[in-house]
Amino acid sequence: MNDASTLPTRNPRTGEVDYQMPIFTAEAVAAVAKRLRAAQPAWSAQSVAHRLDLLGQFAQAIAAESEPLVEALTADTGRRIESVLEVQGMQNTIRRWLSDAPGLLVDEAPRRANTPNVIIEQHKRPYPLAGIISPWNFPLILSLIDAIPALAVGCAVMIKPSEATPRFVPVLRRAIERVPGLSDVLAFVTGAGPTGEALIRNSDVVCFTGSVRTGRRVGQLAAEVFVPVHLELGGKDPAIVCADADIAHAARALAWGSMVNAGQTCMSIERCYVDRSIFEPFVAALSAEVAALRHSFPDIASGQIGPIIAEVQIPVVKRHLEEAYAKGARAITGGKVLGLGGGAWCEPTVLVDVNHDMAIIREETFAAILPVMPFDNEEEAVRLANATDFGLSACVFSRDIERAKRIAARLEAGAISINDAALTSMVHDAAKQSFKYSGLGGSRMGTPSLQRFYRQQAFLINDGSASPWWFASATAPATNRKS
Ligand code: NAD
């Protein structure tokens, strides 16, 4: 089947089209939105405990479907270990909200206003329908990471996953169906950009994860529809390795932080600045770590590095490498994109002799490549790290924690890992916002995450006494009248 109602989907390991994804038209998206909106008032009228109980059941349903979910995610992404971790991680994310949300969603006790005869009651009113658009690099987690807090608050949720990785959707729908009533308020619509635009037109709040280019368009549309939008976009995260860093420790952390998921994570370390006095031993240590990594090919259960998932990314990675070599860059290990079994596989790569004229230092590469540059002093390190349009996260390595924190405070990024790399992929309970083009809106992480999904409504209640602001009453006793 391949007609206007489906989109062909490429398998990243074989390069072949082996799946047809149904396309939701604008009318179909509107119909789903209408159904979800109709069910949302009852969902929001339930107690928080009831909603969380159902979300707990959803975690169990994901566990019950974990094998087929891992299979589908593996077919979507061409990698297995990360798919297993993704399914486990999703259950942990739900459980974290089960313990955090109750305390955060209780109504505050009424309090007296500064105006003495007024009592304030604060209420949280969920947006009826939260629309979520997600990318291909972690298809399951990035579809649900905003959906869970939105559902906990009382919103209905409509999700449009990436067209590059849609195979997990039918399996996840089965898990949703296992939980009584959950499918009334949680639905997936599949398709490409036009389906995403229809979702925005039907949403009351939008959470988008993806590229800066699409994020800008999503922001414009949300402004047209006049709904709030939270954008989690790309990055070009820098690492700063100071002269007093533990070289072996930094090399291991950065090999992981730049190569995990074959570099296809938003908070992947994509630039490394190293004090010139330790440049040679650091590059040797890093290259040894990176050279030991293997492609998960032909055996998917072996190695650490999967294929490039999205076809559109393959020419980007090749262009960045070719341009860097043309301008004088050298690969210490790796250095090429290989064709293996029909898929495209980036060799785990460490580059030197790089500079800020190169796309590989300026633009998001999204591959298993770490370019390394020396710096001469702290000032230069900070300047180079901040010389970017992005501001997602960063990391600093130094045995002197105060020094590392001093540098971290000068970095224009939302989360700074100290003596570790890319920690935001694991630590979801620290609030952070993106700087520069890496995003816009509230924090996805930490407890403020919930605030994105409700409006605060205040009841301002007169306690029965006359207000000092009122006009003098014509009928009140003369003693009460100002004259
Ligand atoms: P993308 O921007 O190409 O697509 C993201 C989603 O937007 C997809 O579902 C796509 O179908 C949809 N879309 C495309 N056009 C649209 C439109 N006009 N209106 C509405 N939706 C539209 O991004 P991608 O290539 O799928 O993902 C990779 C990017 O995501 C990288 O830049 C990466 O850094 C970023 N990312 C960011 C985070 C984060 O938390 N900051 C996490 C993961 C990935």
Describe this structure in words.
This protein has 483 residues and is α/β, with parallel strands linked by helices. It has two domains: 6-233 and 438-460, Aldehyde Dehydrogenase, Chain A, domain 1, CATH 3.40.605.10; 237-427, Aldehyde Dehydrogenase, Chain A, domain 2 (3-Layer(aba) Sandwich), CATH 3.40.309. The chain has 16 helices and 20 strands. Helix 11 (247-259) links the parallel strand 10 (237-241) and strand 11 (269-275). The termini are far apart. Nicotinamide-adenine-dinucleotide is lined by residues 133-137, 142, 160, 162-163, 192-193, 196-197, 209-211, 214, 217-218, 232-235, 266, 310, 364, 392, 439.
Low-confidence stretches: none
The best one-word shape is globular
Q: How many structurally independent domains?
A: 2
Gap between N and C termini: 85 Å
CATH H-level superfamily title of the largest domain: Aldehyde Dehydrogenase, Chain A, domain 1
Quickly count the helices. Answer: 16
Bound molecules: nicotinamide-adenine-dinucleotide
Shape-level CATH architecture of the largest domain? 3-Layer(aba) Sandwich
Strand content: 15-25%
Largest sheet: 7 strands, mixed
Q: Within the CATH hierarchy, at the fold level, what is the topology of the largest domain?
A: Aldehyde Dehydrogenase, Chain A, domain 1
Structural class given helices, strands, pairing? alpha/beta
